[in-house]
Amino acid sequence: MKFYTIGVYNSTENEFFIKLIQNKIDTFCDIRQHRGLRGAKYAFVNSNKLQLKLEEFGIKYIYIKGLAPTDEIRAIQKTSDEKYGIKQRKREILDPGFVEEYSSMILSGFDFKEFFDSLIKINSKKIALFCVEENHEACHRSIVADTLAKKFNYKISHL
């Protein structure tokens, strides 16, 4: 298996799906806490629309709620962003407090064996981890990707 990460901010619907198709993604793992975005610009990644479009391309959709940050963990990042006057869509890195809490509260209890087994069961080869931020280093998916690379020796590409 090979893992990828993908965000949606600053992508058009066409650009977003072309990245998935060109990289032959066969499994799309949604790791957001909330699976919808306000406004028309990114409505195509609202869960129901997204799942229908992925199905058109033969890409399996899985929601991995166990990798989503909680409201409390997200509040750490929001406080940091506000402190430095950074908008979520312009963020370039995660606050160290967010990384620490996410790692200890989410990743430490996440059952990676069950996750891998579920991917093997559906014959996943190229898996995209999805959240909204454009820059993977500004999103919790980078923490998941780092864990997959360091702890499990998976190759990671960021789309």
Question: Can you describe what's shown?
Answer:
The protein has 159 residues and is an alpha/beta fold. The protein has one domain: Protein-Tyrosine Phosphatase, Chain A (Alpha-Beta Complex). Helix content is 42%, strand content 13%. The protein has six helices and five strands; from the N terminus they run E-H-E-H-E-H-H-H-E-H-E. The longest helix has 14 residues, at 71-84. The chain is globular, with a radius of gyration of 15 Å. The mean pLDDT is 95.
Quick summary of this structure?
The protein contains six helices and five strands.
Annotated CATH architecture: Alpha-Beta Complex
- Tally of strands: 5
The helicity comes to: 40-55%
| Main beta-sheet strand count, sense and barrel state | 5 strands, parallel
Molecular shape: globular
List the domain count as a whole number.
1
Which stretches are low in confidence, meaning pLDDT under 50 for 5 or more residues running? Answer: none
| CATH fold node name | Protein-Tyrosine Phosphatase, Chain A
Number of helices: 6
Mean pLDDT over the full residue set: 95
Estimated share of beta-strand residues: 5-15%
Give the end-to-end Cα distance, rounded to a whole number of Å. Answer: 16 Å
Under the CATH scheme, which class? Alpha Beta
Which structural class fits the helix and strand makeup? alpha/beta
What is the rounded Rg? 15 Å
Using brief descriptors, characterize the structure shown.
Protein-Tyrosine Phosphatase, Chain A; 159 residues; alpha/beta; 5-stranded parallel sheet; 42% helix
